Structures are given as C-alpha cells and as structure tokens.
Amino acid sequence: MPTRRGFLKCLGGLGACLLPWSSWSDSFVNNSLTAQASFKNLLPAKLAMLNSYQDTIASYLKRTAMDDISTLTQQAFEGRRAGSLGEEKTAAYLVDQMRGLGLNPLGDAMENQQRNYSHAFTIYPVIEGFSNGRLTFLQGDPDTLRTPSANIIGGLLGTSTNESIILSAHYDHLGIFQGKLYPGANDNASGVGCILDVMRRLLREGLKPKRNVVLAFWSAEEMGFVGSYSFVQNPTILRSGIQAVFNVDTVGNGPVGEFAFWANNNNRAVQAVQTAVAKNKANVVLIPTNGHNSDQLYFNIERIPAVTLMSRDWLNKNHTPEDVPSFVDPQKIALASDILYGAVHELAF
C-alpha cells in the first residue's frame, strides 16, 4: 500500500502514454515459464518433485495460502519489486498456479488471437525513500525510459460470460534495498494466498458460477497502483460487465476477527463483504485512507463497485524487513479467505 500523493498526477496522464508492449507481453510469459524450472527448486521437497504439466489438478488444489506466502517471501524472489527478476519469478509462479488449476487465460491477446495470462503495461522510474520508518517509492524522472511490467489474469468462466466478479490482490512488493530483503509476507503475499485459496475452494466444489470469477494479480501497486490503473484503462474483460471487485491487501496480522476496508461508498462489493463478515462472526469497519490507498481506487473512480479488505492493524511492520511469514497469523488468513469466499459466492453463484 503506497502513499498515493505524488503518483495521482503522474497516473492521470499514463493512459495516453502507455505502450502496447504486446510482443513483450508474450515474451514475459515465455520467460516466466522458463523461470518455473528455477522456482520449483524453492518449493517444499515433496512439491519440487512434481511436474506441473503432468500432475493432476489435485496437487494444486491441495496447496494453501500459507504455502503461497512461504514461497513468495523466499530470498530468490528478491522482494518481488515490479520490473525486476523477482517480479518475473513471481509471475511464473502465478501463471503455473493458474495453469495447474485449469483457469482460463484472460490477459492480452497474442498474434494468433489466443489469450495469455499477462496484461502488459509500463512503469515510471521510482526513487526509494523512508516515511515514518516505512520504505516507500517516490516518483522518479518521468522522461526516463519506462520499464515493462504485467498483471497476471485468469479465471473460471460462468454461464453468463459477459458479467464478471473480480477477486484481486497485488503481487509486487519493495524488493531489496540497502542490502535488506523486504519479504512482504503480509503486504501482500497474504492477499495473493487468500484469493488463490478462494479459487481452490470454488474449484473443489465443482459448481459452475453464473458470473465469471476472475483472479487478477496486480503488479506495481507499490509504485502507485499502476497495474490496476492500466487494467481499468485497458481491460481484458468487458468493463461494463464487471459487477464487483474484491481486492485484498495486507490481511494477515492483528486480532483474528478484526478487519477494515477502503471504499468510496456503500456499493455492492462493500455490502457483500459486510454480509460475509457477519456470517463469519467477525468485525469490519470503514477506515480513512489518510494518504494511503490500494487497488480499489481507480475502479471506484470509474464507478465500478470495489472494496479493499485489510487488517485493521495493517500498518504494523508494514514496508519493513520484519514483514516475514511468522508475522502472518494462519487463523486470520483462513478467516479472511472464508469472508472472501462468502462475498464472491453471494454475487457469482
């Protein structure tokens, strides 16, 4: 969750200067698939023996959010900074999970009109800086050559293929700075793991949704919500058909039953989350952004119902090297997944 000040003006003109990067989009996925051989060595020994293209879907359905968090916070993922090799390895992991779960690719169209899982965009250079003890990114020179990046998007198609529910989380973090790894376990490997867990649960049930359930992993959130902004400006699904966006960011710390959310009004997504929270006997409150924000922002600006679910104590150890897997509470992750499952199930089935 970056500080939004300093980025909004920059992003306001980004739509006009985004490059198509379609050929890069294809190569990003190809390079990511090549990188899978290396990231498989990072998985637990039993999983490392699996061949993801030969194993059954059951091996993917058995994974958990905590498995995802443990994997994505390892040193080899280099803190998942957008535009880095760590981002590419993370994208490889997410593409592998989507393929293994049998999800339809809903990213950019390739030259043969087939879809892949990546949605390409570019990012401005940034400068690292500290604010109240948190490492943050400040806007760099906008005239400097931008760097390619990509969202990763796939989904479970419903019977009404023109309408979609988006379940999203940003997968990028801060990288390595001054020799220190910023693992980003809570921010936001926790969100990535939660939404993968929801999709695994839906797939285990084997029910066909009425509306598409789209998994969207945004990149460059820490650089000013660039990935989600790029998607809103150039969506790979029918924008008018987006019924709700459930964004998940930093949900794994603090008291188990205490959550918060950001949204600009009491929209359909907010109501579904509130209903699911009540059914799970938890608590959720709307809190002020206080100069911060997350990937629901530009959906709300475009009047698309969207909400970000987070821990009420999300700022604790946020953007520090102490945001490690042991900081994340598995019980809270499980509860967050149950809440998201209930909200998605209410609107998609």
Automatic annotation (TrEMBL):
- GO molecular function terms listed in the Swiss-Prot or TrEMBL record: aminopeptidase activity; metalloexopeptidase activity
Record key words, sorted: Aminopeptidase, Hydrolase, Protease, Signal
Please give the superkingdom of this protein's source. Answer: Bacteria
Q: What Pfam families does its record include? A: Peptidase_M28 (PF04389)
Signal peptide residues are: 1-25
Domain Peptidase M28, which positions?
151-340
Q: Is Flavoprotein one of the keywords UniProt gives this record?
A: no
One Gene Ontology term of the biological-process aspect is:
proteolysis
Q: What is this protein called?
A: Putative aminopeptidase
Species this chain originates from: Candidatus Desulfosporosinus infrequens
Taxonomic lineage is: Bacteria, Bacillati, Bacillota, Clostridia, Eubacteriales
